Amino acid sequence: RQIGMMFQDYALFPHLTAERNIAFGVRKLPAAERRERVGQLLELTAMTECARRYPHELSGGQQQRIALARALAPRPGLLLLDEPFSNLDAELKLQLAGEIRDILRRENITALFITHDQSEALAMSDMLGVMRGGRVLQWDTAYNVYHRPVSRETATFVGMGAMLDGAVRRGRGIDTALGRLEPPAADGALSGLEDGARVSVLIRPDDIIHDDAGGLRAVIEKKQFRGAEFLYHLRLESGETIHCFAPSHHDHRIGEAIGIRLDIEHLVVFR
Q: How does the average pLDDT of the chain come out, rounded?
């Protein structure tokens, strides 16, 4: 059927070695071709040294590579990956996501990758679909899904962001608690909106820069340490909240007011 499948739990045959697991999908090939294809995939997935090990002798990442090689062996036209990283720790996920993307490109195979982890989806995809309740809300590039969501549902589901109340001022922008936001004329953010229309504006954490000399002030309500950065939950004078990333050496107290400034490339506006 020319469809390969990589299962969430890998589903390797426990009684077969790594190389025999890979060979399972091409067992109808002549022996010489089969050995050549298995050797290619062991090399491609950097698993040559583990060829004669059984699944229980492999780490989670190694099992995943063998499962991928087995799925790729018949050269499928389409590869389905069902949450393949769900059993791995965060660092290994990041490493293997990049490796698998490179392997799929080298093999020139289209893959449909299913995941609940948004960072995986954004990192792996050429095109990304957001599904909710069995319905595709948006099908687009990962960049556009994040920066140009077509609906409020997608905007609030993908990534982190806050919706600020605003009022349209035709020809001048949108008045918000962060001041007047002025989209570029070519942006089209205000098309179809009449003067005085009440709107919601999507503000991402990367739209807000922590700057002690910034003209705006906000109070830290919560903070999360993420190693290289803090994620600050900020309260504006209006009572509305936004999020901001800051380098981790900018360690401010909860309840402290800090300076911020805006760095918004384009506006995402919903009536």
A: 91
